[in-house]
Structure prediction request, 323 residues.
Amino acid sequence: MASVAQVLQPVEADLEVLLGNLRDLIGAGHPILQAAAEHLFQAGGKKLRPALVLMLARAVAPGDPMDPRQRRLAEITEMIHTASLVHDDLVDEASTRRGVATVHHLFDPRMAVLAGDFLFAQASWHLANLGSLEVVRLLSRVIMDLAEGEVRQGLHRYDSGQTLEDYLEKSYRKTASLMANSARAVGVLAGLPEPRLESLYRFGRQLGMVFQVVDDCLDFTASDQQLGKPAASDLRAGYLTAPAIFALEEDPGLAERVERRFADPGDLDAALHIVRQGSGLERTHALAHGFAREAEAALTWLPPGQEKAALLGLPEVVLRRLN
Prediction:
């Protein structure tokens, strides 16, 4: 079974260049911030978002050399994503991510806020220097979406009245917006017409939704070791994802436990049992499969090649994490 890393193999060399460039872009002169950023970029992870930009850039404009603006776009994408993780970890009070100490745990919360801000500022600076106002608009929208998604999530903790639409909107802002808008930005830099730009956006959006929905399933079914964080941590923290929202429809008694923040003995275990025994996980699987099919359909127009094959294989590889 292919992994995400294997599917992204066509841009493996590009990703190596990207990591080197990121270290140079962060620059010297801010030793603590540089140390924090270095720590983040070395913390593993699939580098899916910049890889997606690089793969799409090669797919829409085959051959070498790649437009340097596309490489810079990939670097900006990773900066924005990494900055959002620093702030997310701080808000969630997470001590590790992917088994590596988080920035606020390694340094301190104040430094984590500054490191995240520093990366957002760096991303904005390099974005302005790309020379495309449309790309600036697209990626600025992403930064707004990330912040709004985090605020919405915080405001709706332990809110049993959330709908599936609320969940999908929050998931778009927190996860899919970056993939969707950076994919569209690739097309803008390549000079593609509007219908192609829309299909790139749709591919990134639906792939991002697959990723989020699969992650939310795994939160209930995977082990702590597989997740790199405690299992069921979202529910425990009061963040209701698709499996829990479906379970609330089937068992109204779950709402009482959620609203009292699992304060009574056995509340959390009972809630987990309700989610795992009902049809919520199965319905969440179906949701992820629907997004995957829509993502694949968005790229049928790409010319044949290893990049197209890899891009079309990505949604399926993400889905396989559920098996």
